[in-house]
Design goal:
Layout (H helix, E strand, L loop, with lengths): L12 H7 L5 H13 L9 H8 L1 E2 L8 E2 L8 E6 L5 E7 L2 E5 L6 H15 L35 E4 H4 L3 E3 H12 L3 E4 L6 H14 L6 H25 L14 H14 L4 E6 L4 H7 L5 H6 L22 E6 L5 E6 L9 H16 L4 H4 E8 H6 L1 H7 L13 E6 L8 H4 L16 E5 L3 H18 L3 E6 L17 H9 L3 H11 L5 H22 L35 H10 L11 H15 L6 H13 L5 E5 L14 E2 L6 E2 L12 E5 L5 H12 L5 E5 L10 H8 L2 H5 L6 E3 L16 H6 L7 E3 L4 H13 L6 E3 L15 H5 L6 E2 L13 E5 L3 H12 L4 E6 L1 E3 L3 H8 L7 E9 L5 H12 L6 E5 L10 H16 L5
Parallel strand pairs: 9-11, 9-12, 12-13, 13-15, 14-15, 16-19, 16-20, 20-21, 21-23, 22-23, 25-26, 25-28, 28-29
Antiparallel strand pairs: 1-2, 3-4, 4-5, 5-6, 6-7, 8-14, 10-11, 17-18, 22-27, 24-26
């Protein structure tokens, strides 16, 4: 699918626009005069700015081009006449005309300067805190005296079309209008945006439309309805379920009309589906009043569970659960809403939302898909500024493989963390300052002014649809109760909560406003409130008589053909391909146009693959993967892979694209298999494990029919994504009944590269395994890898696949697979002893192992001529197929010892996971033995020589006559 082309403009003039602010005018004037005297004394980057603002002029004395200044420093003064006949001077500047008595040097330029100053600095003194606490002192740039204006000058007549159309006003009126727009209940930061087109458009909307048009007479009752719905819901729960955790929206009720009007706007602008991610604060309110989850379902979740045995060891708390619904707007349009499941790790749902949206957009596949599917993320202020996953996710916004056409972000700014004040939780003025990295609009709005909130959300929606960029809305509100309803916030913030206790709820304030403006009567507003509360009362009576509703299925739509739950022995393992298809695909993988200049080393790489195609050589790991991809692509399967350096592969084994040595253009053999093949997308990712893995997990949630893979640069680096693994990948099926077929490739193996380049921490994944929730494999052959990848798509079960993928085995002479392993058999969870020199009746010991150490054991046995020790490979550690393992060991009836061998330290690797399982399968007489590194706090030594000594020792010990 094509990337959205509707991006913000980044024209050269944008730099100039940002320079001409009030405080910079004198500096630029001096710089320009310096340039006129000596062009070489000023950096050449200023030349296009001078040319734009001052116009071209021929070179002087044969030197560099100079520029003739326009009226910004030499304004045109035109004698005029006031209505009373008095003489005036008319000062003109582009967009501004000033009529003042007496000649006033640079009047229009100074007006322009203070206008720019309000655009740039007005947000610093805006009244955005509903608790009305002091903010900043007024910046000097906003003081008229800085620009030489006197009290008399405030009466000068000014024509400024963006604010007043054709009407002429006094300078004093102009300044007051600027204060109303930029220093009122809405504060906006947008002057740092690099795109002049988007910045100019936004400025016009702000100054001409008061952000967005709103008709209080027509829209006021709708806003009140939303506020009543928000407030009544919280009030009712607070009375009926005293002290129950709900993370209420009280104090931030304006969020509901904000989202209501945003969805109305979105539907009118072509949005068909919105995927929502949010943490706890206000989640239940959004579920009910925006997602339309019925009141009876909401209240029932506060009742005691009538069948607690159904929920043992599974499910999640109510403020983590997701929901989907169709919302019909007032205009009659329908928008599908999906609220993502979310754990208590507040912001980690962010990349998951983005991945889901990207998958839905790509599935839609139309040119306008980015505009039809919208990600909406609701954040907390302390989490937005404090959690690194926020910045990592924001950084994906314009990256090719992750762009979703812009996200609407709403920060529910309680102005406090759990008990932590803002000054103790961030180093910035605003909680949203981390978003400045994107140079997109940031709006701050007073939560006690619902009309201002609605205006901002409508404009944010329009901006996103027009420019395909993120927008940040900072809803400055407060938290009427503690972090949860059982908490006492006055222990730590007595002064703040004194103000909150005295504050009238926003609904009541807005009712007063509607009545004072004669938009509604007291009787009308009372009726709205009483009707809602009465309705909740009736629902409450009914749910006390009925059982808790059953959970809603999450396996509808594209998920209908797939299932989770327990797996059976050998499930989905048989997926070979024909010999004919093997050869056809192998040939296509090395078929590169003659005109494409391939690097000389890669030409040898292709020649090696040619021998696989002809059957002369077995396939290595990279070829096994390429064949798996190719075999799925030709049947129409979509493949998406991402990670750090995955196109080439960290270990230079993949080379999915072959780059022309002269032009740099990439040729992708896997995209030239046939006309009807599936799409292949392989993206080098940002240097983030957390956000990228979260994104791919989200992508897999809406792509059950695709092969979705994430590869770590080194398996050890998966540590950086532990929250995504623990809270989503491993437990999503159990907690939320959400399935994922995500494949994680984690390079693992002890080759002496130190503590951070050896272990993908298999013990951590195995500790998380239960209920057949995922596959964990440590494979030893390319064919096994081939079949494991194909199983991910061809089997109807959907489970995450964790592969301890190789490093040294990528080029190991024995870690190869002949054609028949791809064409005559499928995946084998257990690989039996297959060395011809091993005779079953002579075997005294059976070694069980997994992964690379198998080849070290085989090499040692061959070197020492040992033929009385069998080696069985456990390719799939979880789910462990006990029946197959027992069958693999059964032939060695004379063996008296069963030994587990691993490279990892004893407290790591698979030992503590597999030991009790071996006892269950083989009994405790004798106990299974262990061979491997001793327990250690660190995964591996940093000294290569020490590594070699350890490795030789453990391999030798595995074959010793007597185990230590």
């Amino acid at each position: 699918m094509k990337e959205s082309t509707e991006q913000a403009s980044h024209s050269p003039q944008s730099l100039a626009d940002t320079q001409f602010t009030g405080e910079n005018l004198a500096f630029i004037e001096d710089l320009y005069r310096q340039y006129l005297e000596d062009p070489g004394s000023v950096d050449t980057s200023w030349e296009p700015i001078f040319e734009e603002y001052f116009g071209p002029q021929a070179p002087l004395n044969g030197g560099a081009p100079h520029f003739k200044p326009r009226s910004i420093f030499e304004p045109a003064y035109i004698p005029g006449q006031a209505p009373g006949g008095d003489a005036v001077w008319v000062d003109k500047l582009e967009g501004i005309t000033v009529r003042a008595p007496g000649r006033t040097e640079g009047f229009a330029a100074r007006v322009e300067a203070i206008v720019r100053a309000f655009r740039l600095h007005g947000h610093l003194i805006a009244g955005i805190d509903p608790l009305d606490r002091p903010r900043h002192t007024s910046p000097p740039e906003l003081e008229p005296s800085l620009y030489g204006f006197t009290s008399g000058d405030l009466k000068a007549r000014v024509h400024y079309e963006p604010l007043f159309g054709s009407r002429e006003v006094t300078l004093g009126e102009l300044l007051q209008r600027l204060r109303d727009i930029y220093c009122g209940h809405i504060a906006v930061e947008y002057q740092n945006m690099p795109g002049s087109q988007s910045r100019t458009w936004l400025r016009d909307q702000i100054e001409r439309n008061d952000y967005a048009e709103l008709n209080p007479t027509e829209d006021g009752p709708h806003i009140l309805d939303s506020l009543v719905e928000a407030d009544a819901f919280e009030t009712f729960l607070h009375k009926k379920y005293v002290g129950a955790k709900r993370f209420s929206l009280s104090g931030g009720e304006s969020l509901i009309p904000m989202l209501d009007f945003m969805l109305e706007e979105a539907a009118g602008l072509g949005v068909e589906e919105v995927v929502v991610g949010m943490a706890h604060r206000g989640r239940l309110n959004v579920l009910h009043n925006i997602m339309n989850k019925p009141a009876e379902a909401m209240f029932s979740e506060f009742e005691k569970v009538q069948t607690p045995e159904d929920y043992i060891g599974s499910s999640d708390v109510k403020y983590h659960m997701g929901f989907s619904s169709d919302r019909t707007t007032r205009s009659g349009a329908s928008v599908h809403l999906s609220l993502c499941f979310n754990p208590s790790h507040l912001e980690f749902v962010n990349p998951v939302v983005l991945g889901r949206v990207r998958a839905k957009q790509d599935r839609l596949g139309t040119e306008g898909a980015r505009q039809k599917l919208l990600p909406l993320q609701l954040h907390g202020d302390a989490a937005f500024s404090g959690q690194g996953i926020v910045t990592e996710s924001l950084n994906l916004a314009r990256v090719k493989g992750y762009n979703v056409g812009g996200t609407i972000h709403v920060v529910i700014n309680n102005q406090i963390g759990f008990t932590t004040n803002p000054e103790d939780s961030r180093s910035t003025t605003y909680a949203t300052d981390v978003a400045k990295m994107l140079e997109v609009p940031i709006f701050h709005v007073n939560g006690d002014d619902p009309e201002a909130c609605v205006r901002v959300m409508k404009l944010a929606m329009r901006y996103r649809q027009r420019f395909g960029e993120d927008v940040i809305v900072d809803l400055v509100c407060y938290r009427r109760y503690g972090h949860n309803e059982g908490d006492e916030p006055r222990f730590t913030q007595p002064e703040m909560y004194g103000s909150i206790d005295a504050a009238k709820p926003v609904r009541e304030k807005y009712v007063d406003s509607l009545i004072s403006r004669q938009i509604m009567t007291p009787a009308q507003t009372d009726k709205v409130w009483n009707t809602q509360m009465d309705a909740y009362g009736e629902v409450f009576k009914e749910i006390r008589k009925t059982p808790l509703p059953k959970s809603i299925s999450t396996l509808d739509g594209v998920w209908t053909p797939y299932h989770g739950g327990p797996l059976k022995s050998g499930d989905g393992n048989n997926a070979p391909i024909s010999e004919e298809l093997f050869k056809e695909l192998a040939h296509k993988l090395v078929d590169v146009p003659e005109s494409h200049n391939v690097h000389r080393t890669l030409r040898r790489f292709l020649k090696g693959r040619e021998k696989v195609a002809t059957g002369e050589s077995p396939a290595d790991w990279g070829m096994g993967e390429a064949l798996a991809f190719a075999s799925l692509l030709v049947q129409g399967t979509r493949i998406r892979m991402s990670g750090q350096d995955v196109i080439r592969g960290t270990f230079s084994h993949r080379h999915a694209a072959l780059f022309d040595t002269k032009t740099g253009e990439g040729y992708w053999p896997l995209r030239h298999l046939g006309e009807d093949q599936g799409s292949l997308e392989i993206y080098n990712s940002t240097l983030s494990e957390n956000a990228v893995l979260g994104f791919e997990y989200g992508f897999s949630l809406d792509s059950p029919d695709a092969l979705v893979l994430w590869e770590a640069q080194f398996g050890d680096f998966v540590n950086g994504a532990q929250v995504i693994i623990d809270q989503f990948i491993n437990s999503g099926e159990d907690k939320w009944k959400r399935l994922s077929g995500l494949t994680m490739l984690l390079p693992h193996g002890y080759e002496g590269q130190g503590p951070e380049h050896s272990s993908a921490r298999p013990e951590r994944f195995l500790q998380l395994c239960a209920g057949d929730n995922m596959y964990v494999c440590n494979l030893t052959t390319p064919a096994q890898y081939f079949h494991a990848l194909r199983r991910q798509v061809l089997h109807s079960a959907r489970k995450p696949l964790i592969v301890m993928s190789p490093k040294s085995l990528l080029r190991h002479k024995d870690a190869v697979s002949p054609m028949e392993d791809f064409t005559q058999a499928g995946f084998q969870p257990i690989l039996k002893e297959s060395r011809p020199e091993i005779k079953a009746d002579k075997v005294r010991r059976v070694l069980l192992c997994s992964g690379k150490v198998y080849y070290d054991l085989c090499d040692h046995a061959a070197e020492q001529g040992i033929d009385d020790v069998a080696i069985v490979r456990v390719e799939q550690l979880y789910p462990l197929d006990g029946k197959l393992l027992k069958e693999a060991v059964a032939p060695f009836k004379n063996a008296s010892e069963l030994v587990w061998v691993q490279e990892e330290p004893k407290n790591m690797g698979a030992w503590h996971y597999i030991f009790p399982r071996l006892i269950e399968i083989f009994g405790a007489n004798p106990l299974p033995a262990y061979v491997g590194r001793i327990a250690s706090a660190s995964p591996a030594t940093g000294a290569y020589e020490s590594h070699e000594l350890e490795q030789r020792s453990l391999v030798s010990q595995a074959f010793a006559k007597k185990l230590d």
